[in-house]
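Good morning C.,

I know you're traveling, so I'll keep this short. The sequence:
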Amino acid sequence: MKKQLLVGIALGVGAVSIAQTTVPFVAPKLPAAIANKAVLYKDNQQLGTVNDSFEGVVGKLKNAPAPTQKAYTTTTIGTSEYQLQSNASICNRVVLNSDGTISATWTMAQAASPWADRGTGYNYYNGSAWGAAPTVRIESTRCGWANIAVGANGAEYVISHEALTTPGTANLLFSSRAAKGTGAWTTGGTGIADTWPRMVVGGANGTTLHVIAQSSGATTPVTPYRGQDGALCYSRSLDGGATWDKVRTIIPALDSSNYLGFGGDSYAIDVKGDTVVIVVGGFKVDVAMVKSIDNGNTWTKTIIKQFPIPLFDEPTMLSDIDSDGFADTLDTNDATVGVLLDNQGKAHVFYGAMRMLNDDLSDNAVSYFPGTDGLMYWNENMGATLSKMIAAALDLNNDQTLNVADWGTYQTSLTSHPNAGIDAQGRIYLAYSSILKELPKMVLLLMEKATDIRLY
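The tokens, ready to paste straight into the viewer:
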């Protein structure tokens, strides 16, 4: 089974509709033998990459159709032999500009394994047509995990991480050009020795770049940074990448006194003006949000889904929350977090549900349950209210059971990889993946001002 992870570019296939209801959303059940099947997961373990090609597809929703319509058009904008577009959450890969143009990126390679030409694939929609599918990366150096942003001045910015050759030598690459859709790219190193980045552009000037990335990279053993095995580092440029006034800083609420570290791609970021919001997650940590309303100078923290054992350390701690000496199965999250700031600057957070167990201190791993399902949602209006499940795998024959025999184990919920956007009317569009007839599919969730939920 092929796993397509180009979620940031594929905006939707498939469709049913549900009316607004006050009845809690309930996911279809799996047979107990499948639902309770556990799989080992080791820290900093990357997803396996298969040598199958895929096509990047853009799906365009036409003017918010009625729930029963399937009004999509799709266009192939590029291809790649490199399938691993993310280990968990989705990069910022698509920008719909105010003039109707679209800038899109993905991790591209035209050669098969070991993907020597890996780098940023880029395409542009000029308002009437997409450009030709690219065959050459925009950088000269092998890299991946491209994020794109467009400044208020129309400049395009791309950040990616250079391929790691030896521990501690990773470098975030920064590419830019003065006008979106045209001109030569200028690429250079940032001096930021991190991996798996996320980047957004905001600030009062519209050219402040906010970058988060993981410090350790895919090294074994990991290289600690400021007391954490996988610190979440925050960097900032106030002038569109010309200089960086904050480099590899640690936001206090996410430091070593709160967390032992974070996995690659287990975080998301959004910005609106001077308001910046970051969400983190993972099997062994909280779903936590830090928010700044002063362009990244100071931060406040909200715990959205608390992991029951603070500073959980797998080699020394069982997942025992009742102190009876026996490991417990704990509800947690799958690290595929997503966050969106609405038009009023309030945060909306999404993540996949997960369960974990640590009953063996000698295997350097925890167990997770790939049969766990459910896409969870929270927003700032909910306060201390628990997150709500808003989507799960579709029960196509209405027998309250998910009739699948088995599937690949990708360290995520059966419904995960959320990626949200918003229109001028305040309607939130959420793309996510979900298993369907043993194949992962993309669906699109329209949230009418975060109250009316429709599934297309």
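Safe travels,
E.
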